[in-house]
Protein: Class I SAM-dependent methyltransferase
Amino acid sequence: MRGKKVLGLASGGGQQMPIFTALGAECTVLDYSDRQIEQERMVAQREGYLITLLQEDMSKPLPFPDDTFDMIFHPVSNCYIEEVKPLWKECYRVLKKGGVLLSGLDTGVNYLFDEEEKTLINTLPFNPLNNEEHLRQMQKSNGGIQFSHTLEEQINGQLEAGFTLLSLYDDTNGYGNLHEHNVASYIATRSIK
Structure:
C-alpha cells in the first residue's frame, strides 16, 4: 500500500483509514457527517498521521479528477442515499485503471423486520421519502434517513459502471434473531476497474 492513494468513501470515524495509513497509503476521507469527519480528525491527530478530510455528499459528483485513486474503501453506507448507480459510475471515474473498489452492502433484509427481528413489518423497497410509515420508523430509531437497495442496484450497478467483480463475501448482523438463524444481511464485494 506504500504510496497508494486510498479514498475512504463515506467511511469517516477513524475506523479504517488508520489501518491504510499504517500500511503506507495516502488517505482521503469523504463523508457527509460532520461528526464522522471530526472523529476521523481526532484519531489522525492522536495517532500522528496525515489525512485529507472532505465533508461532501456522495450522492453528488465526487470532487476529484478522473483516475485519482488506487483504491476506494466504501463501507456499508449506500443505505444513506436513494440512488446508488450514479455513485458506482463516479467510483469508476475516479479510480485509476486496475484500481480496486472494496464495498460493503446492506441486502435490505434488516428493513423487513421489527426491532426484535421476529416479525415482518415492511415491504421493500424501504424508502422514507415515499412511505410515511418508513419515515416514522426512521424518526423513532434516530438512525437518519435510510434506504434499501436491491442486489441488482448494488452489484449489477457496479458491473454496469464498468467494474469487474472479483469476489463476494456475505455476513450476518453478528447478533440478534437473524444472526442466530444465519441470515446474511450484508455483502462485501471486491471489484476492479
